[in-house]
Design goal:
globular, alpha/beta, three-stranded antiparallel beta sheet
């Protein structure tokens, strides 16, 4: 199948799925045959709206004082393109929401360039993107690229490093590609030597806990897997059932359940695949992880079996759980005194260390074990853009240090992709307890990215495996349909190996 036909077919099935004309399993199987991973199918990296950063009132941006250098550059560079309109379709993410609802007016006023941002469910973003690149219509000038899309769309975007070098007068002074965190450049932006886009967004698992309860019980944040479990057990014994030791995102058949599983699996030295491409989650290390998880679940609220990340985040915000390993983007919402019962009480640190870690060479399909399960995205300029220069100006501004600072301090919950933003005085100033938009969790996010980050395998069949097989069978296990965890994991192995070999 020619690449253009492939993308048109993908656009067609994504449209059918988004309209309810195709069930999830049929969609996963059809799309997997086209070589797209779980994130590309809009099912893997979608975090809850609240956790991913809600829309921010324009009034919140009124106190922002853009630098004169930024104003001058945008005004001068935008003159030839005033009146042009650029378009972006994106998932609901902290950067997109902050830009769309609060920061965009500044860019439009300074440059005269109009910006239209569509915030959509990720499968609809995929449908629009695939149709656009297959037809070459250039409906969208900018693409939101999930990390799992890089291979499929690397030929349809402009390498930003090359664009910067060749753009001359359009290059933002001091843009500094070296400022982007190296792990993110490698993990979410590079494919086969091509920089598909600029690192834009990075959700990642960190450890978060109730300071007041830890102090009362004489506990310290966990540095090991065993300490994480013992902390949860101590809290449960002292505070349950009003306050549980920990919580989870364990709804049967949902990708969130697979996310939790990978963290415990990697944390016990296991991996999903071996170098020969076989499922090994049922080996000795995988069984150690399941035994650990069973003990941990005894210290979670009863409703955890029905929760995705939404319920998990709410359980902490409502004061039902005292420690959790989950998405760092939850943290600012928990500190918001208007919407949280634990405002000012939470603390953040890195995940507990794994008992051991397999190297990527000991795994398959580019799997990188790490307790800090991650997802991420890049912002790219389309090769088919009708207004490529205006789009490039916007892409630089949207991912610049100054804009990232304001996205972060407005309270979107994002982890910055630039190193300098973590150290910026304005970001540090927001590192206070009990305020909306706190940034006091970001040191933990940065260290986790550098030293604890885990990435799932990269193979076309991963969509079906991670969204259907693993969470469905794990859900059956937690519902008591398997006699023991070994039987459940053996069943997963049989199904996964049949998929990857067929």
């Amino acid at each position: 199948m020619r690449p253009s036909d492939r993308k048109l077919f993908l656009a067609s099935i994504a449209d059918r799925y988004a309209r309810g004309g195709m069930d999830r399993r049929a969609f996963l199987r059809s799309a997997a045959k086209l070589g797209l991973g779980a994130g590309a199918l809009g099912l893997a990296a979608q975090l809850p709206f609240g956790a991913r950063g809600g829309f921010i009132s324009p009034a919140a941006a009124q106190g922002i004082d853009w630098s004169q250098d930024m104003r001058n550059w945008l005004t001068e560079v935008g003159k030839p393109f005033a009146g042009q309109t650029i378009r972006l379709a994106t998932e609901s993410t902290p950067p997109s929401n902050a830009i769309n609802s609060a920061l965009k007016p500044f860019f439009e006023e300074a440059t005269g360039i109009n910006v239209e941002i569509e915030v959509l469910p990720l499968e609809q973003v995929l449908q629009k993107l695939t149709l656009d690149v297959a037809s070459g219509l250039g409906t969208y000038d900018l693409y939101y690229i999930d990390q799992s899309w890089m291979a499929s769309f690397s030929g349809d975007v402009v390498d930003p490093r090359e664009r910067y070098e060749s753009s001359g007068e359009l290059a933002m002074p001091g843009y500094d590609f070296d400022d982007f965190l190296p792990a993110l450049v490698d993990g979410i932006s590079m494919y086969d030597g091509i920089m598909v886009g600029v690192p834009y967004d990075i959700p990642i698992f960190i450890q978060m806990y109730r300071r007041d309860i830890f102090e009362e019980l004489g506990l310290n944040p966990a540095t090991t897997m065993e300490e994480f479990l013992s902390n949860a057990q101590a809290i449960q014994e002292a505070k349950g059932p009003e306050i549980y030791g920990t919580t989870g995102q364990m709804r049967s058949g949902h990708y969130s359940l697979e996310c939790d599983w990978t963290a415990w699996l990697w944390g016990h030295g296991g991996s999903i695949f071996s170098p020969d491409g076989k499922f090994v989650g049922n080996d000795e290390r995988g069984m150690a992880a399941m035994e650990y998880w069973q003990k941990l679940k005894e210290n979670m609220p009863p409703g955890v079996d029905g929760w995705t990340w939404d319920g998990q985040g709410q359980s902490v915000g409502q004061g039902l759980a005292a420690t959790v390993l989950s998405w760092g983007e939850f943290f600012p919402s928990w500190d918001d005194p208007a919407n949280s019962q634990v405002s000012g009480l939470m603390e953040a640190t890195v995940p507990p260390s794994a008992t051991s870690l397999r190297t990527p060479e000991e795994c398959g399909f580019n799997e990188i074990p790490g307790v800090g399960h991650q997802g991420g995205s890049s912002l790219a300029v389309s090769k088919y853009a009708k207004s490529p220069d205006a789009a490039w100006i916007f892409a630089q501004w949207a991912t610049s240090k100054e804009t990232q600072v304001y996205i972060t301090t407005l309270g979107g919950g994002t982890g910055p992709t630039r190193s300098s933003v973590y150290d910026d005085p304005r970001v540090k100033e927001n590192a206070k307890p009990g305020i909306a938009g706190t940034t006091r969790h970001l040191d933990a996010v940065r260290e986790t990215i550098a030293n604890h980050m885990g990435s799932e395998p990269d193979l076309p069949e991963w969509a079906e495996i991670s969204n259907d097989v693993i969470p469905v069978e794990l859900g059956r296990f937690w519902a008591g349909e398997y006699d023991d965890p070994q039987a459940a994991m053996d069943a997963i192995k049989e199904k996964v190996d049949a998929i990857t070999s067929g």
